[in-house]
Amino acid sequence: MSRQWSFTCTWLVGRELQLSPKLQYDAALLILWHLWKARNARIFDNQHLNEWEILRHVVRDMDLWRRRFKHDQALWEAWRNHICSCL
Predict the structure, then answer these.
(1) CB 63 within 8 A of CB 69
(2) Are 56 and 86 in contact (CB under 8 A)?
(3) Which superkingdom heads the taxonomic lineage of this protein's source (predicted)?
(4) Is the dihedral of CA 22, 67, 28, 37 positive or negative?
(5) What's the maximum distance between 2 C-alpha atoms anywhere in the chain?
(6) Domain residue extents for the chain
(7) CA–CA separation, 65 vs 51, rounded Å?
């Protein structure tokens, strides 16, 4: 199995965590934000981040955002742990 396929499969498995719509939205925004930052770094600064480096940045920010989800911390932590398992 190729590394790209493995990454894609792992991402799709994460949908089974059954996050609330708010958590899904915020997690998706965070991931998209880091993809956008990586794209800009590549175009404007000639820095090439691979998907694993991008996910590390996502996990770091998820740690910072944890306090936003006082009532859903266990679910947020489950999503964070799932992303960590992709690394």
Answers:
(1) no
(2) no
(3) Eukaryota
(4) positive
(5) 41
(6) 3-86
(7) 21
Asked if residue 30 lies in contact with residue 58, where contact means CB atoms within 8 angstroms, the answer is: yes
For residue 45 the two structure tokens come to 């600064």
- Rounded to two decimals, what is the model's pTM? 0.72
Count of CB atoms situated within 10 Å of the CB of 27:
22
DSSP code at position 72:
S
| Cα of 46 vs its chain's centroid, Å | 23
| Cβ–Cβ under 8 Å, residues 20 and 78 | no
Give tens-digit pLDDT for 34-79: 999 999 999 999 999 998 899 899 989 988 888 777 787 888 888 8
Instruction: Produce one character per residue of 28-61: b if its CB has 16 or more CB atoms within 10 Å, e if not.
Output: eebbeebeeebeeeeeeeeeebebeebbbbbbee
